[in-house]
Amino acid sequence: MGGTKAGDSTRRARGGRTGDGLAPDDPAALRSVAIVGPMAAGKTTLVEELLACAGAIPRAGSVTAGTTVTDHDPDARRQQRSVAPAVASLTHRNMKINLVDTPGCPDFLGEVRAGLRAADAVLFVVGTADAADGAAAPTSALLAECRRAGLPAVLVLSRLDHQRADEAAALATCREVAAGSGEVLVPVTRTERAADGTVTAVRPLLDPEGPDPTAEDTAEDEDDLRRELVETLIEQSEDEALLESWISGEPVSLAALRTDLATAVARRSLVPVAGVCAPAGAGLETLLDLVVDAVPPPTAHPPLPAHAPDGAGHDPVAPDPDGPLVAEVVHTGTDAQGSRVSLVRVFSGRLTPDTTLNVCADPLRVPAPRDGEDPTGAADAGHGARETVRVNRVYAPLGATLREVPWCVAGDVCALTRLGAVATGDTLCGAEDLVGLDGWELPEALLPVAVTAADRSAQDAMARGLARLAATETTLRVERNEDTHQIVLWCTGEAHADVVLARLRAAGATVEVTDVAVPERETVAGPASGLGRHVKQSGGHGQFAVCRIEIEPLPRGSGVEFVDRIVGGVIPRAYIPGVEKGVRAQLEAGVTPGRPVVDVRVTLVDGKAHSVDSSDQAFQTAGSLAVKEAVAAAGTIVMERLYEVEVTVDDSQLGTVLGDLASRHGRVVGTEPAGPGSTLVRAEVPEQALLRYAVDLRSLTSGTASFTRRFSRYEPVAGG
């Protein structure tokens, strides 16, 4: 079937009703796998070679040349790495396999989680040359993500042709980081090399056309690998007869071993390890066979927690092709024309063209703004079912190429276009059963980037661009800071910020990055008094107001307290609210511009009024003048924002993190175990020292540590 680029005019396919194998009718003929792994492990290259091996594309593209199927995004090509999940489908042995390529850069962890949401299993890719390059840390973090998603996995050892390739070291690293998980990592392939080390073949150890896996007349290293695999499978097997046959020395059925392999993978007690040399084409077909034979079908996917549109409870959604339609938007991208393209995973039922669907969103997730809405405004989190959309056509994606198919059954992944304001995380369902799937957890964006627009026209363009980004960038948070009046883009890291800014500018917004301003407060250093005199006589009705105040500091967090101690009516009662209003307005604005004065008591003790020229406005001005004089006389203490920070770090890097916190004027308030080999550090850190902490902590710990922050209070500036 021919394909079309997203955004081009499309025609309904005239081929077979199954879309040339791209629209299976039975979920048992489906496999959806997320390709996960550290940066530079060769994930996208592996996808290219698998597609070419299966005949989905004529030849494999190149990451450096920008010709790969899944890195079709302009930002991915510019950065030469994946920045979002992308789906490419192929068929192998009459099985449709959805390959969900995910980023390896830690900045795009939210996109990795979206890719895991679309999949039923993981191909975890680790470069065999990376064991000596500190691969353990990022591998550990990503393996933890896969475990959290609850998906079975296959470990793929890639880049076998690298001059420093070391399969044994790479496997040892992965076994080390998987220790304690209960998962057994065991090789299921054997790499064959020529005398000069060139990879000649990667062969399966359970090859139905190869020698008996329990035979003893094989090469010693191959025999060791097979023995390890067979013994592991028998240990994992629930077939007692198989174990008895093995113990008694009888031949073991190859079919039984392959069945036990699939069973152990499905229950996540075993992770098969397969080697692949993508450029040489070695191991590709073996890996596809492994996906078909050992990866569980979508019907084995655990039911997903769900809710009613109003947030009430709902039965979990099971992967039933005959059930009511329930699908979820796992990613929202754009085509070359800027139109939205939604990647959708169908969890129940069947999605067909020319269908009207209800949109139900997670009530705990803030909805993306519609086009034209202010992306920095507060949104209603409990929006539930907010509209219906019309699905005109259904596509099987091959990166940016959309191949029209007649349906998408439960367990499959498809692409939809022209869904209006539908955003990532939204659930699509039929009218007969309104339901929303509970959303997956998004990583918190902790790197602030302040942006400005040159003029009104640029501001409007920026607002439009941010509104569109809010629907596609699930981890981006847009804030209009009430204290500094800056527009702040909260990103997950520098690479994410680079993508956000590039997409803003591509949308026509002329924006510049500026320093992030940190809100500060002031309080008075001691008691003082001030006189406010506002007298104007210029003929006719004048202005007259005089007031004297006393100011004194209060305990932290007390705010502003106003006390009226006027006696004898020197200021009429009607004007005292005006004095208070002027005092509070000046304290809020700050005597030093941009620094509100807090934690003070202001007492009105004396004043004068005129029977004709006094007014409420005049006393507001007098109150403002009085508080300016009093604050200046008392002297001020600058207050900075203090945050409660929790850092989860490997024990091996605890000292590094503690030393770094001390250099940031942080105060450690406690530590406690956070799991095997890790520690939770609680500290209080000034906000100024946290502006780049998301980047610095990742650099210090090779991406293994994480942190959260929560505003605590204002405290005097350290050393001030």
TrEMBL record:
Segments of this protein annotated with the region Disordered: 1-26, 203-223, 299-321, 362-384
Biased composition range(s): Acidic residues: 214-223
Entry-linked SUPFAM superfamilies: EF-G C-terminal domain-like, P-loop containing nucleoside triphosphate hydrolases, Ribosomal protein S5 domain 2-like, Translation proteins
One GO-annotated biological process of the protein: ribosome disassembly
Keywords: Elongation factor, GTP-binding, Nucleotide-binding, Protein biosynthesis
Statement: the UniProt record of this protein carries the keyword Protein biosynthesis: yes
InterPro entries: EFG_II, EFG_III/V, EFG_IV, EFG_V, EFG_V-like, P-loop_NTPase, Ribosomal_Su5_D2-typ_SF, Ribsml_uS5_D2-typ_fold_subgr
Annotated Tr-type G domain residues: 28-299
One Pfam entry name: EFG_III
SMART domains in alphabetical order: EFG_C, EFG_IV
Domain of life where this protein originates: Bacteria
GTP-binding keyword on record: yes
NCBIfam families recorded: small_GTP
Protein name: Translation elongation factor 2 (EF-2/EF-G)
Native species: Actinomycetospora cinnamomea
